From TrEMBL:
Pfam families: Arg_tRNA_synt_N, DALR_1
UniProt organism field: Streptomyces ardesiacus
Organism phylogeny: Bacteria, Bacillati, Actinomycetota, Actinomycetes, Kitasatosporales
Domain Arginyl tRNA synthetase N-terminal: 4-92
Name of this chain's protein: arginine--tRNA ligase
NCBIfam families: ArgS_rel_codon
UniProt EC number: 6.1.1.19
Gene3D superfamilies in the cross-refs: Arginyl tRNA synthetase N-terminal domain, Isoleucyl-tRNA Synthetase, Domain 1
Catalytic activity: tRNA(Arg) + L-arginine + ATP = L-arginyl-tRNA(Arg) + AMP + diphosphate
All residue ranges annotated as the DALR anticodon binding domain in the record: 256-371
Alphabetized UniProt keyword annotations: ATP-binding, Ligase, Nucleotide-binding
Coiled-coil ranges per UniProt: none
């Protein structure tokens, strides 16, 4: 059971409780599931009972008890434990869950974690407005890509844009011009030449236009330039030096792209050995890798909600760091013949490649098959 499937299972439990007359609430359109926090247990936790308590007119713990009975009956769930004021902590059949996760990623490919149009905020248009600053424009561009992946229509406007920001950094906006005084500037990361965050009380027309972008930043090119602006949190000043170009482990962008290239190489080499991927039980695989892949849809949703592509960038680094040791173990060694275990590990490697390629594409960064 993938996190998306588990979310639907939680909603189905709510619907069953409503149909049985145990709860009198409107069934929400979304149930957030995430790794348990401090004091939690199991594979995933949800706060849906706390969300429904007030409209149900019942204490959160009582709502959680009602939902627990329905969740415990669902296929793929082995245990449901209540903690705190009413958190539902869910344990899954790990073997079946891992196979289901890999199969789902391979089915969706680079679009794993995307929200279907029918599930997204159809008809709603999010307006992203940003100042004349290369970092703000790149962040708005990446935020728009991520929002669209979650089924949201987006319109990006900037106070101004330089031709090089489009030709070198690949930025596109829908409108250029001054922002009306009554409209907020919604994308406001620290500029590339700032020593700290821009105070919120400063009006748009008094913020200086950064002077660094045309030289050091643009010399990095599209991929490294965008990464330099997108990887740091919005309040952090980005570094625009050549460290983003070096092909070493110290460079997070290199590790992400190298992990993708290794995953693609595994598929090519497996084809040369005459076998293909087939999702199956996985043994001796670091659980952190599977957890990071399962967390990808939640990260995309959070990055969209908070207009924070840096969350996606750092998540890709987490996936890559967990995947690189595993990718060394995918293929048969010596005279070993390909087995079902190798096909299952190859399927996981291909899933890693799909997640990294899809995430980099949303950041506007290329994912090469060779490095």
């Amino acid at each position: 059971m993938t996190p998306v499937e588990l979310s639907r299972t939680v909603l189905h439990a709510v619907r069953r409780a409503v149909d049985a007359g145990e709860l009198s609430v409107a069934v929400p359109t979304r149930a957030v599931v995430a790794p348990p926090g401090p004091g939690g247990c199991g594979d995933y936790a949800t706060s849906i009972a706390l969300q429904l308590a007030r409209p149900a007119g019942q204490p959160p713990f009582r709502v959680a008890e009602v939902l627990r009975s329905h969740l415990a009956e669902a296929d793929g769930i082995t245990d449901v434990v209540l903690t705190g004021p009413g958190f539902l902590n869910i344990s899954l059949d790990r073997a079946a869950t891992d196979v289901s996760l890999v199969r789902e990623i391979l089915r969706r490919g680079p679009r794993y974690g995307y929200v279907d149009a029918a599930e997204g905020a159809e008809g709603r248009v999010v307006q992203l407005r940003c100042p004349r600053d290369p970092r703000a424009v790149v962040v708005a561009d990446a935020s728009a890509r991520i929002l669209r992946s979650q089924g949201t229509r987006v319109r990006v406007s900037a106070e101004g844009i330089e031709p090089a920001w489009t030709s070198v950094l690949g930025v596109t906006v829908d409108a250029v011009g001054p922002v009306a005084a009554e409209l907020p500037v919604e994308v406001r990361p620290a500029p590339v030449d700032a020593v700290g965050p821009v105070p919120a009380e400063l009006p748009v027309d008094v913020r200086p236009v950064p002077a660094v972008a045309s030289a050091e930043l643009l010399s990095l090119g599209r991929d490294a330039g965008r990464w330099a602006l997108l990887h740091p949190a919005a309040h952090d000043r980005p570094r625009t030096g050549v460290e983003h170009l070096v092909q070493r482990e110290s460079n997070p962008l290199f590790r992400v792209r190298y992990a993708h290239a290794r995953a693609r190489a595994a598929a090519r080499n497996a084809a040369d050995l005459g076998f293909t991927a087939a999702p199956g039980p996985l043994t001796d695989v670091e659980p952190g890798l599977l957890a990071a892949l399962a967390d990808h849809p939640r990260v995309l949703a959070a990055a969209a909600d908070h207009r924070a592509p840096d969350r996606l960038a750092r998540h890709l680094v987490t996936v890559a760091d967990a995947a690189l040791p595993f990718l060394l173990t995918v293929l048969p060694r010596g005279g070993e013949k390909p087995s079902a275990a190798h096909r299952a590990r190859l399927a996981l490697a291909e899933a890693v490649g799909a997640v990294l390629a899809g995430g980099l594409a949303l950041l506007g960064i290329d994912a090469p098959d060779h490095l």
